């Protein structure tokens, strides 16, 4: 009979990937100190492609550590997209935390082994991995352990606040703007929002504002399904009834969710944990409506497209299940990261080839713009097809171009904007300030796995 480590090695070959840094005996749960040691061990093993930084502290003072993978750690390179994974938002949903630790070890090991696929991914992408957004909640859940952990014990932070119900409610504002032809991206935050969120939430929002993330996934547990926005329903709650709430990028989100579902060993089969989700995916609001969640906030306040991955029926699976869960998710974790390279990307310049920061990029027929970065580069995820794209910036004449997107790498499309002639009326709506008006008011706002 083959040993556990032999099965893992064979599984890696079947996936076209080398054996990971983790052997069968290495699959164990990591408390806070063990997690930190594991992350710093990876950084020590791969110092030239990694960086560890903290985005803040939890209520009880634990660092929210991020491990970065790229060929130039600490630097945003123009036209290199930013990607993030976030785990353990609910402290008692622990599989995502462990998978992200294993993923970090795996990326380092495969890069050192010369794996071409992983090397290309790291050279062409800036990857940020936050294994635990809620380290305090994890410690509460871990004290009970896998066998006795309750459905809610450790879910919230140290103040028992559910962090996935703690972000500013921008959906209400977006649904209002949809009816009144208002702003469709980078929606403003309410007054004094920093005083209304938990330290962990505040740290993550500041993180999102400081990095121009393009794609993300948030790892949860309690079901097995890839969930995509919107999470909050446009319709009033009616007992026993749910409604599909699509974003303007619904087809892209469905494609992203399917990418993970079909690369996962069994998510795409639909029947999991006593529930059925066709192809292993669901619109969040169609499942159940959720207010103030992180997934919708990413889409409405930043450029980032995020989905929520429910990865296990058991929120706190035993250590003996971790090796098989890693094998089930490894290809999906890598394939999903590769999706950040689809669509269009480019630079926005003025007539003298100087980069223009914060330009708005609009796609005809899609009511959701994105904004270029401070270095003048932009990234717009799109499915294969032909699109009419416009770049605009305050003080410049908008420029429109047609581009055909294929199924492979992102097409580069650069824009050169001319200075707006004096006395010309500007369409200021196209250049809405990213922070929005300081007086913006957000209208006021079920406890499933998310």
TrEMBL record:
GO cellular component, one term: transport vesicle membrane
PROSITE patterns, per database record: CARBOXYPEPT_ZN_1, CARBOXYPEPT_ZN_2, PEPTIDASE_M14
Catalysed transformations (reactions): Release of C-terminal arginine or lysine residues from polypeptides
Mode of membrane association: Peripheral membrane protein
Location, primary (coarse class): membrane
Metal-binding among keywords: yes
Entry GO MF terms: metallocarboxypeptidase activity; zinc ion binding
GO biological processes: cell communication; intracellular protein localization; peptide metabolic process; protein processing; signaling
Cofactors that this protein relies on: Zn(2+)
Peptidase M14 domain span: 28-340
Keywords: Carboxypeptidase, Cytoplasmic vesicle, Glycoprotein, Hydrolase, Membrane, Metal-binding, Metalloprotease, Protease, Secreted, Signal, Zinc
Coiled coil: none
EC number: 3.4.17.10
Subcellular location: Cytoplasmic vesicle, Secretory vesicle membrane; Secreted
Signal sequence residues: 1-24
Active-site residues from the entry: 310 (proton donor/acceptor)
Classification via InterPro entries: CarboxyPept-like_regulatory, CARBOXYPEPT_ZN_1, CARBOXYPEPT_ZN_2, Peptidase_M14, Peptidase_M14_domain
The protein's name in its UniProt record: Carboxypeptidase E
Organism of origin: Phoxinus phoxinus (Eurasian minnow)
């Amino acid at each position: 009979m083959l040993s556990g480590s032999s099965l893992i090695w064979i599984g890696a070959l079947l996936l076209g990937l080398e054996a990971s840094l983790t052997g069968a005996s290495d699959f164990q749960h990591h408390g806070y100190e063990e997690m930190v040691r594991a992350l710093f061990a990876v950084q020590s093993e791969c110092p030239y492609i990694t960086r560890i930084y903290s985005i803040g502290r939890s209520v009880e003072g634990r660092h929210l550590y991020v491990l970065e993978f790229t060929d130039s750690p600490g630097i945003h390179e123009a036209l290199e997209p930013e990607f993030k994974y976030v785990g353990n938002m609910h402290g008692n949903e622990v599989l995502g935390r462990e998978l992200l630790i294993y993923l970090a070890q795996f990326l380092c090991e495969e890069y050192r082994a010369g794996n071409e696929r992983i090397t290309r991914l790291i050279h062409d992408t800036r990857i940020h991995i936050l294994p635990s957004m809620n380290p305090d909640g994890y410690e509460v859940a871990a004290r009970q352990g896998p066998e006795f952990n309750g459905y809610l014990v450790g879910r919230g932070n140290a103040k028992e606040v559910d962090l996935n119900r703690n972000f500013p409610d921008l959906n209400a504002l977006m649904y209002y703007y949809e009816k009144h032809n208002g702003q469709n991206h980078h929606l403003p935050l309410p007054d004094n929002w920093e005083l209304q969120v938990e330290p962990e939430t505040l740290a993550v929002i500041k993180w999102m504002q400081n990095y121009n993330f393009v794609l993300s996934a948030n790892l949860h547990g309690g079901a097995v399904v890839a969930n995509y926005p919107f999470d909050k329903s446009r319709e009033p709650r009616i007992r026993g009834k749910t409604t599909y709430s699509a974003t303007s990028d619904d087809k892209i989100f469905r494609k992203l969710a399917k990418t993970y579902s079909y690369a996962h060993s069994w998510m795409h089969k639909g029947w999991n944990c006593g529930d059925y989700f066709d192809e292993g995916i669901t619109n969040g609001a169609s499942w159940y409506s959720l207010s103030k969640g992180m997934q919708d906030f990413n889409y409405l306040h930043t450029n980032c497209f995020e989905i929520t991955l429910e990865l296990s029926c058991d929120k706190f699976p035993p250590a003996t299940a971790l090796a098989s869960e890693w094998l089930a998710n490894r290809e999906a974790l890598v394939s999903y990261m590769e999706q950040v390279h689809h669509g269009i990307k480019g630079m926005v310049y003025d007539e003298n080839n100087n980069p223009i920061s914060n330009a708005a990029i609009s796609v005809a027929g899609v009511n959701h713009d994105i904004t270029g970065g401070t270095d003048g580069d932009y990234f717009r995820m799109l499915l294969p097809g032909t699109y009419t794209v416009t770049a605009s910036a305050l003080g410049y004449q908008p420029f429109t171009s047609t581009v055909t997107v294929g199924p492979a790498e992102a097409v580069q499309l650069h824009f050169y904007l001319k200075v707006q002639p004096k006395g010309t009326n500007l369409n200021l709506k196209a250049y809405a300030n990213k922070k929005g008006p300081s007086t913006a008011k957000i209208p006021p706002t079920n406890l499933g796995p998310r």
